[in-house]
Every structure is written in C-alpha cells, then in structure tokens.
Write a structure and sequence with these properties.
By secondary structure, the chain is of the alpha/beta class. The protein is built from 13 helices and 14 strands. It is elongated.
C-alpha cells in the first residue's frame, strides 16, 4: 500500500515537472492589454511573437504604445520601431486589440511641390513616406503638381484631399502664404496639417519638418568665402523666392557673403530647372565676366550652371555650389565639375511626415519643429550621396 502511494506521488511530481516548461513556453494569455518595460535584447518582433503569437504583428505594439502616450506620457513615444530602449514603457495590446489595430488604416496625404519622377529630392521624400506608411499601416496618398510653380494645382489637390476625408495632411507648400486659406479649410474639418521642406506663414501648422534652410545657405556661403579672395564677385541663382525654403537658403548665403566681404553682383531666378540654371548662368557670366563663384538654391540649377560654364570655357574659374546633394550633383562633384552641395535628408521628411501625421491623428502633442539637418558635401564625401 505504502509503495503504491509513494509511486503515485512520484508520478504526480514528474508530471508537474514536465508541465512547468510547457506552460512557460506558451504565449501569455491576455484578456486585455498590459504595460511592459523594455528589457535588454528586446525587439518589437520578439515581443509580438511572445505576447501576440505573431512576430509580424509588431506594428500593433508601436501604434498602441503611441496611442497610450497621447493619454499618459509615461508611455514611450515611438518614432522608429527599431529603436526601443531599455526602460521604455510600452503597451502590449491584447490579441483582439492587435487584430483591430492591424486591420485599421488611417488616411494620410503627403503633398509635395513636384512629382518624384522630376526630381531626385522629391523621389527620396516619396520613398521615405511609402516605406514608412507600409510599416505603420497607413493608407497613404502621394500627390504633387508637375512643376514647383504650379501653386493653383497644389491648392486644388489639397482641397480635393480635404473633401475626400483625409485624416492628416503632410504638405511641402509651393508658396509660403498662398495655401493658407486652404489650410484654414483643413483646420475647420479637424484635419491636422504638418509642413515639410518649405515653411509656411500659416500660424496653425502642427509642426515644420525639414532642413534649417537658412543655416544650410549660410554653410554654403561660408564654404565659398573660404575658397575665394575677399572682395570677390559672386552670384546667386535663386529659384522662386515665394517658396520659404528657397528664400531662407538665399538669405543664409547673403549673410555669409556680407560677413566675408564678397560682392553679390547678380541674383537671378533659375526656375528650379537645369535649363533655367544654364540660361541665367549664361546671363551672369556675360554681364559679370569676373565672377568667382555662384551659389544655386538647388542642384538642378547648379548642374545647369555647370553646363553654361563648360560651354564658355570658364568652369575651372568659377566655384559652383548647389543645394540638395542629389545623386547627379554628387557625380558632378566627383567628376570635378560642381564644387560642393548641401545635403538634406529628404527621405526623413517623408518618413517623419507619416510617423508624426499618424501620431497627430492619435492625439499626440507634436514638437513644433523637427530639424533634419544639413551637411556640406565636397569631393571628400560625395561618394556617400551617389
């Protein structure tokens, strides 16, 4: 009898020992969501696999956490799903909550000044927006006029988006003020407006995401000043000064030239195109044969200026500095034609536009300015931008 009792106890203990690891290996059974503090070696996909049984459901954790952050700042705000840090407080949704999140797509329109096919800069903005929208489960619309001068077309496109019920607008305005009445309509409809690339005078924008263009123009001007004798003649190819980004770049360069004693002998609008840059550069060197340098407010115009200088046999005598660091400009610098350019982060403009647009839809407070930075690109680092 005692032996049978002892055998029964041993069997029971063995069964308990065998079941313990099985229980610990099973995904936690949640009736509701739960707070979670990030530990060492945690990744979003690992947490999704552990708690939701599907590693590809990790966007649900990021989106749910940002929704909680809007209510309770003790939860982390996630702008990059690959950069969670030890100590961050996340919200792990229940399986049912995660399913709803994964099936819900908020509508955001990114409206740029020109289409991706026309300019590598806008191509990078669109790429950043598209890839980010896919990860963050956003129903994204990309739109733009086919020329940066088509202000009326952009206004029409934005108003159409408002009519169709977009939930957030991310806009690179073609004009600093012309879209303000349209933005007023978005505000009246409860649609947050985030500005990228080129700032606006509209006072109710949620944020400005982009380059400190004045600082970038000043960086370009200071570089030129360091390459030419004091008092030298310089020129600026401007683009449309009604675009705040262009105006800021020009004013930054003007400040640098004034500080070093350079003489600005011409400021002409190159219409943002190679053809325009070439045409005005021809005019500049005809009227000012001693010009030593030209700052161009974008790379397309700078590449056009190079063509004009090559045709005139003056390329070796004139420094050409652009703005944007697009691949063609980088190749020109490496070929010894353009001298330098200023790099922005257009990919991040699209990326942050989508992330913070979604955050705004969720009710989060957004920083009023998000600077994507500027870098001087010369022959030493141009290969990084090809």
């Amino acid at each position: 009898m005692a032996k049978r009792i002892l055998l029964s106890v041993i069997v029971t203990i063995a069964l308990l020992v065998a079941l313990v690891p099985m229980a610990s290996a099973a995904p936690p059974q949640q009736q509701g969501g739960q707070a979670y503090t990030v530990q060492k070696d945690d990744w979003m996909w690992k947490l999704a696999d552990k708690y939701l049984g599907d590693k590809y459901a990790y966007p649900a954790i990021a989106i749910a956490t940002n929704a909680k952050h809007a209510e309770d700042p003790s939860y982390a705000f996630i702008w990059n799903m690959d950069l969670i840090e030890v100590g961050d407080k996340l919200y792990i949704p229940s399986a049912e909550e995660a399913k709803t999140i994964m099936e819900t797509k908020h509508k955001i329109q990114v409206e740029t000044k020109d289409i991706a096919a026309n300019n590598p800069f806008w191509a990078a903005v669109w790429e950043g927006a598209e890839k980010t929208a896919k990860r963050w489960l956003v129903d994204l619309t990309l739109n733009a006029p086919t020329s940066e001068a088509d202000v009326d077309v952009q206004i029409s496109q934005v108003e159409d988006a408002i009519t169709k019920g977009v939930e957030a607008l991310v806009v690179a305005p073609t004009d600093a003020s012309a879209l303000n009445p349209t933005f007023d309509k978005a505000k009246a409809a409860g649609i947050p407006v985030l500005i990228i690339d080129s700032d606006t005078t509209w006072p109710d924008k949620l944020t400005f995401i982009g380059t400190d263009n004045k600082a970038g123009g000043k960086l370009a001007g200071e570089f030129i000043c360091g390459e030419i004798p004091s008092g030298s003649e310089v020129a600026i190819i401007t683009g449309h000064m009604s675009a705040q980004s262009i105006a800021d770049r020009v004013h930054g360069a003007e400040e640098a030239f004034a500080a070093c004693g350079a003489k600005v002998v011409a400021e002409l609008n190159g219409e943002h195109t190679r053809e325009g840059g070439q045409a005005v550069m021809e005019d500049i060197i005809t009227a000012n044969p001693d010009v030593k340098a030209v700052f161009c407010a974008n790379d397309n115009m700078a590449l056009g200026a190079v063509e004009a200088l090559k045709a005139a046999g003056k390329l070796e005598d004139v420094i050409v500095v652009g703005f944007d660091a697009n691949p063609d400009a980088a190749a020109s610098i490496l070929a010894g034609e353009m001298t330098a350019t200023i790099a922005q982060s257009p990919y991040n403009m699209g990326r942050f536009g989508v992330v913070y647009g979604l955050a705004a839809i969720q009710g989060n407070t957004i920083p009023t300015r998000i600077d994507t930075g500027t870098t001087l690109v010369t022959a030493e680092n141009a290969a990084d931008y090809k």
